[in-house]
Amino acid sequence: MTDTQTVKIEADAVHRVVIEYCTQCRWLPRAAWLAQELLTTFETELTELSLKPGTGGVFVVRVNDEVVWDRREQGFPEPTAVKRLVRDRVAPDKSLGHSEK
């Protein structure tokens, strides 16, 4: 495979993030804020980011259907922690700048 083919495959890659949040707990603002942070950081790497209403205290972040953060196991995430997890899956070579320190 040539470098051009590799770049084309990476450019065509679908990177989908879903943030599922509890409507009963009124966690939409928290989910929307995290979505904004991810979209700002990964504006060219993400092909889709969606907010999925749920119930029962759910707050889960998935990247390409893989759970990377679950509030029930890890508590509420700091944006930098989620950014690192998303970066590792969609753009491993991307620097997160001051968030890396």
Automatic annotation (TrEMBL):
InterPro entries listed in its UniProt record: Selenoprotein_Rdx-typ, Thioredoxin-like_sf
Q: Which Pfam families match?
A: Rdx (PF10262)
Q: Which domain of life is it from?
A: Bacteria
Gene3D superfamilies named among the record's database cross-references:
Glutaredoxin (3.40.30.10)
| UniProt keywords, alphabetically | Redox-active center
Spell out the PANTHER family in the cross-references.
SELENOPROTEIN DOMAIN PROTEIN (AFU_ORTHOLOGUE AFUA_1G05220) (PTHR36417:SF2)
- Classification via NCBIfam families: CXXU_selWTH
| Name the UniProt record assigns to this protein | SelT/selW/selH domain protein
Its organism's taxonomic lineage begins at: Bacteria, Bacillati, Actinomycetota, Actinomycetes, Kitasatosporales
